[in-house]
């Protein structure tokens, strides 16, 4: 009995658009979910990596002989390191090797310019967990030890980046909610049309004693089947899209193209959360479509005299 | 089983179709409903299968006032009533077999039982070679027999048939009437609307006659004296067994 349909809904043109539409909606939902999850992953990652760290930046000595400037730079760096290591609340201070600092600037300035220009000395600072640090006092003492040295706790940058990441994640969620709403509306429209098309058969079924739920079950089954087909194809397409993006990223990373984009895209790794989104969204879409069809039939039929 | 009390019926703004109609169908009884075309036979049946509500008066079905039956209770009530509609009301895209199987499927009968009983009944009404035929490919008489099979397959408590022999020849009409009598013997209350006088003559069951929106009840043995049936043909003696024995059964 579950395999059959007494209303011949499969021949009904009013529901033919459903699989295609649901495929598009699920495609969008899966991409939105993966985008949102990735953005949220970045936020978490930055949080984990940058919370409890600071960077001290010592400006280069300009206007002196190269050798003299290097000696002064080394002196300043040692002074700063000594100061940091005795400051309560700091667990560790590590100078960033010049090559590493230069590498950070290379994408913006180019190799030649980085080699020619004096670059600031950086010191990575790891804070001790649970110990308060007097940032204002430290900043003063740093100024004394090495004039122009600044203390950057990443807070401003991190807050901006996290706000961006969070808004991308929220946007993903909003897209999913809107897409679900669109799916519900599409199913309601299809079911109402179907009820109109099959008005006579439904009247006959009612007259020979079919309860509303018997009729609802027919629409439910039919809609569920169409929705599943559409949702699965949408999810497969979305997975293919993500795979293509990753492949493009991996391909361009070593050759050409902006390194930033490549590193961003290669960060879109398929983690367990993405797999869950990929599996859950089509099932959820099918479930939403099926339940909407049922509710919509029951509500419409209950309005009949 | 069925009781009408002072029932008035008219459709929106139309003429009065039933005026102060009162009668009762005893459980297990077998009645004909006669009257000219447009006399209100179909409307009277419609009130019994919950297809309409009376303008005033009470229609009582299985001990319940139909005006008070909630929408959610209707399906269960309707499953106890088998109806042969005048226009058959078959589902066009379902085969003869699936049309007849519908009441069983609605009732949740096992598919194995359906596969067993439905072909048997279709064979009885002479359609064994048309199990998979769609209604549109069949003649009016064949469609009518599908409609009859669908009405009786669930062994309803009450069978209402609206001109069930209108599209078949006399030989098949008699056979179909036997089918209704068989069902009646098993306890089903039967009401058959017809204007086939020869059929009414042949089977001696009491009849209800509609004329001028009023209903008269004519028992078989007073057929000769009945106001509505003054034709000598109705003086045939009644056999008390048919309606009498069946009437004793509970519906």
What features would you describe in this structure?
- The complex is a heterodimer of chains A (305) and B (251).
- Chain A is α+β, with helices and mostly antiparallel strands and 305 residues long.
- Chain A is built from ten helices and four strands; from the N terminus they run αβαβααβαβααααα.
- In chain A, strands 2-3-1-4 form a four-stranded antiparallel sheet, covered by helices on one side.
- In chain A, α2 (66-86) packs antiparallel against α5, α6 packs parallel to α10 and α8 (212-254) packs antiparallel against α10 (272-302).
- The longest helix of chain A has 43 residues, at 155-197.
- Chain A starts with 17 loop residues before the first helix and ends with a helix.
- The mean pLDDT of chain A is 84.
- The model of chain B is unreliable at 222-251 (pLDDT under 50).
- Chain B is globular.
- Chain B has a six-stranded mixed sheet with strand order 6-7-8-3-9-10, sandwiched between helices. In chain B, strands 2-1-4-5 form a four-stranded antiparallel sheet, with helices on one face.
Biggest interface, and residues per chain?
A-B, 17 and 29 residues
Overall average pLDDT of chain B = 85
Strand content of chain B: 15-25%
Structural class call of chain A reads alpha+beta
Average the pLDDT over all residues of chain A and give the rounded result.
Answer: 84
């Amino acid at each position: 009995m579950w395999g059959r349909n007494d209303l011949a809904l499969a021949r009904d043109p009013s529901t033919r658009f459903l699989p295609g539409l649901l495929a598009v909606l699920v495609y969008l939902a899966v991409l939105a979910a993966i985008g949102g999850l990735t953005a949220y992953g970045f936020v978490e990652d930055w949080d984990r990596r940058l919370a409890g760290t600071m960077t001290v930046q010592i400006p280069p000595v300009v206007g002196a002989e190269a050798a003299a400037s290097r000696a002064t730079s080394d002196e300043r760096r040692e002074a700063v390191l000594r100061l940091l290591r005795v400051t309560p609340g700091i667990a560790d201070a590590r100078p960033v090797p010049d090559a590493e600092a230069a590498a950070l600037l290379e994408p913006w300035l180019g190799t030649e310019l980085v080699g020619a220009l004096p670059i600031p000395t950086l010191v990575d600072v790891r804070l001790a967990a649970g110990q308060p640090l007097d940032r204002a006092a430290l900043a003063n003492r740093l100024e004394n030890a090495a004039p122009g040295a600044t203390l950057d706790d990443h807070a401003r940058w991190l807050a901006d980046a996290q706000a961006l990441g969070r808004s991308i994640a929220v946007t993903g969620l909003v897209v999913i909610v809107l897409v679900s709403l669109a799916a519900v509306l599409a199913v309601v429209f299809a079911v109402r049309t179907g009820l109109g098309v099959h008005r006579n058969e439904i009247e006959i079924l009612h007259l020979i004693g079919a309860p509303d739920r018997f009729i609802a079950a027919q629409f439910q089954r039919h809609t569920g089947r169409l929705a599943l087909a559409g949702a699965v194809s949408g999810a497969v397409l979305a997975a293919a899209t993500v795979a293509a993006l990753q492949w493009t990223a991996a391909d361009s990373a070593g050759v050409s193209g902006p390194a930033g984009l490549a590193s961003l895209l290669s960060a879109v790794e398929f983690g367990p959360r993405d797999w869950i989104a990929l599996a859950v969204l089509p099932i959820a879409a099918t479930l939403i479509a099926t339940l909407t069809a049922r509710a919509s039939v029951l509500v419409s039929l209950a309005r009949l005299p | 089983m069925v009781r009408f009390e002072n029932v008035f019926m008219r459709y929106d703004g139309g003429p009065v179709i039933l005026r102060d109609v009162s009668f009762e169908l005893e459980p297990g009884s077998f009645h004909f409903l006669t009257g000219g075309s447009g006399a209100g036979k179909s409307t009277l049946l419609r009130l019994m299968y919950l297809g309409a509500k009376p303008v005033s008066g009470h229609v009582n079905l299985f001990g319940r006032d139909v005006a008070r039956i909630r929408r959610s209770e209707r399906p269960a009530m309707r499953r106890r009533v088998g109806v042969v509609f005048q226009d058959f009301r078959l589902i066009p895209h379902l085969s003869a077999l699936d049309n007849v199987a519908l009441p069983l499927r609605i009732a949740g009968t096992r598919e194995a039982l359906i596969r067993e009983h439905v072909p048997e009944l279709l064979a009885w009404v002479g359609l064994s070679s048309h199990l998979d035929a769609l209604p549109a490919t069949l003649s009016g008489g064949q469609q009518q027999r599908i409609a009859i099979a669908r009405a009786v397959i669930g062994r309803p408590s009450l069978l209402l048939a609206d001109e069930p022999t209108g599209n078949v020849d006399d030989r098949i009409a008699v056979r179909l009437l036997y089918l209704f009598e068989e069902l009646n013997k098993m306890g089903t209350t039967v009401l058959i609307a017809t204007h086939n006088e020869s059929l009414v003559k042949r089977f001696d069951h009491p009849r209800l006659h509609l004329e001028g929106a009023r209903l008269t009840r004519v028992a078989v043995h007073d057929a000769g004296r009945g106001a509505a049936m003054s034709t000598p043909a109705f003086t045939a003696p009644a056999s008390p067994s048919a309606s009498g024995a069946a009437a004793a059964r509970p519906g």
